[in-house]
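Table 4 source record.
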Amino acid sequence: MKWNFSRNQYKGYNIYSMKKYVDKKRIIFTVICILIIIISLAMITFYSLDTIIKLKRSQEFVAQLTQNQNQIQEQIRKAEEEKIEKFNKSKENIENIYSSETKKAYLTFDDGPSKNTKTILDTLNNYNIKATFFVLGSRVDAMPEMLKEIKNQGSYIANHGYSHVYQEIYSSKEAVLAEYNKTETAIQNALGDANFSTHLFRFPGGSKGGTYAELKNEAKALLTENQILTVDWNALTGDSETTNPTPELLMQNLKRTIKGKNSIVVLMHDAGNKKATADTLPQVIEYLKNEGYEFKTFYDEIQM
């Protein structure tokens, strides 16, 4: 086979212009590749930086969240410590309440509120004196407006359980706490204040002795665990010992039981059948004033 090459077939082609054309295409292609690489690197860098920034912000957010949680936990811890400190101080005050070097009188009324409570409050107002009312939850439910009057008068509202039925309240130590809590709820509902707390409980019949002595000791320990204070009395008018006591008998009992005592917690009652107590209260106040007693409430002792 014979090849027939002719110079004329390449006529009009310039080898240099062809090379230049090819080099130009290569350059353009190379530039485009470089631009693609640069853009790709830029995008990778951008997304990498964005990811880093987001990650950093996330870490900062987590760190801030952790710091906030730690601050909240610290605040809770301090608040709990402060609460315990206040309880311990209040408990100490109650335990030392009978050891005052000066004459102090705490007038206390159990088993109300009732119709007699109004008369007692009026007498207290006349003398500008505050007292402490250990209310029954069942009576609070029956007379919520009277409880408001006690609070508005400035007297201390304390807790005496709900039922005052010994077989119920002293069926177990948990029953004592349950009656306390039930009465607290009744008080809160009557006052329209879900945060109100009496902090103070008086055992029906007193916290010592009697058929339920051992159970009362267990219940007292349980109440203390729940930061609930308890108090009895060291003086009384004896208004619950006689069906129809005379003012003379009430005053006689008072004078006998306060003899030789600087600090006295006087037990009286404002139940519905204790009209004699309400009627004799002015004499009680006048006598204690003449004996040099300063009237106090448990606001002065409980710092919670």
